[in-house]
Amino acid sequence: MAFDADDARLLADTVAYYHERLKQSPEALAYLEKRGIAGAARDEAIAHFRLGVSDRSLGLRLPEKNRKAGGEIRARLQKVGLYRESGHEHFAGSLMVPIFDEAGHVVELYGRKLLDNLRAGTPKHL
Q: Which end of the chain is more exposed for a tag (fewer CB within 10 A), N or C?
């Protein structure tokens, strides 16, 4: 992840990170299978739509938040909607579906919580 990149690159890098995490997430892969997306079709869908998962690990790849660089990147992630003021990933626990414009740039993100047993008031769709 290029910490000094512009917002568009920051979004693209984060989408790429979430995409790689999905491939290693048994929970997210099981969620797709539960939804009827399995086998080769699942792998094709993951690749074609660049699906990902926000698994609460993004912060582990960032500089410590008490360091200047860590505070700056978290502020930028908050500005583009990926982090909350609390310092947590906004889409934590969600299957990530990036929305691209005609040029292939990320313009929006949709998140669907993987679990159904959420605290009262927690939205399933972000």
A: N
Phi, psi dihedral angles at 8 (to 5 degrees)? -65, -40
By 3-state DSSP, what share of the chain in percent is helix, strand and coil, each rounded to 5? Answer: 40, 15, 40
What pLDDT, on the 0 to 100 scale, is given for residue 23? Answer: 92
Q: Are 33 and 42 in contact (CB under 8 A)?
A: yes
| Whole-angstrom Cα Rg for the chain | 15
In order of 16, 48, 62, 70, the CA distances from 97 in angstroms are: 11, 11, 22, 26
Tens digit of each residue's pLDDT (9 = 90 or more) over 11-41: 899 999 999 999 999 999 999 999 999 999 9
120 or 17, greater pLDDT: 17
Q: Do residues 103 and 123 touch, judged by C-beta distance below 8 A?
A: no
Statement: residue 63 has pLDDT above 80: no
Backbone φ/ψ region at 90: left (φ over 0), alpha (ψ -120 to 50), beta: alpha
